[in-house]
Amino acid sequence: MAQESDVLGQGGQDLDTDAVAAYLENRLEGFRGPVAARKFETGQSNPTYLLETPGQRYVLRRKPMGAILKSAHAVEREFRVQQALGGTQVPVPRMHLLCEDPEVIGSAFYVMEHLDGRNFAEPLMPDLDAEARGAVIDEMNRVLAALHEVDIEAAGLDDFGPGGNYFERQIARWTKQYRAAETQSLPEMEELIAALPAALPGDDGQRTLVHGDYRIDNLMFRRDGTGCLGVLDWELSTIGHPYADLAAVIMQWQLPPGREGRGLAGIRRAEFGLPEDAAFIEAYCRRRDIAGIERFGFYLSFAFFRMAGILQGVYKRALDGNASNPEHGFKLGGYVPTFAQMGLRALER
Q: Which CATH number fits domain 130-348: 3.90.930.12, 3.90.1200.10, 3.30.70.890, 3.30.559.10?
């Protein structure tokens, strides 16, 4: 299991803690400086810091410095959706404060509750026994179903994303994002970009809140149990189709196990208390009272395609010097052809 010490660097020298303390002093109830910051090493998108003060801990999440793609790294949207979910069946940290003024620390940022829990870097969870593993994955399934059952109108999120066919819109968006970050021509990506629109299913009318990056390492769990304390990293959230989130979970499991792939490929899951793909999908459908999902291969292919686009963006930011972890960004960029190939294979199922 990943403990906090495993994912925290030794310093947050790129964050002006004096400016943060001055801004929070009269705006955040109960806040008292000075502030010490340590940067979380995980994540390749919005830099995230643990803020330690004499009274308590907070988490600060900001946009990256330098040039970024339009509409990317929208910490303002992250703040809004998590604030809207407070009190629902979807656990999220409590949002404290949003600063949209880039003059304070050089970019927009928000401050939220620090969750005192545990995070699992990979679904195999090697430090847990089989029973606990199964319970964690079932809780992950429960929270995902609850997320897709949120009344978006009652939560004030009905305008959080445009209408129309979600997958059609997303394929166009991520193709555009990929083109903006493209560094060389990849035949696999070109084939997938052409194949996905041709395989697009008809719109079934489902319109829900979508997390956009739902996976086990974006969830925090209780230290003394398997209950979920909070869903994190809402940068890609929008109003869309729920099967995108479900397919993202299954996509992750197709990757190699270990800290690099963070998947379950080749694992005899029953021995580890882990469900097969079909069982996880069935449990999700049962919780949402859905009979089943046709043509799941398309949704899985889309998940691989979108991740390939994300990784290409990470690689481009590393080249430009804007990545949160440049060395890791270069490495991730090398996986783009592999994800495209896996997307093509999924589409053939």
A: 3.90.1200.10
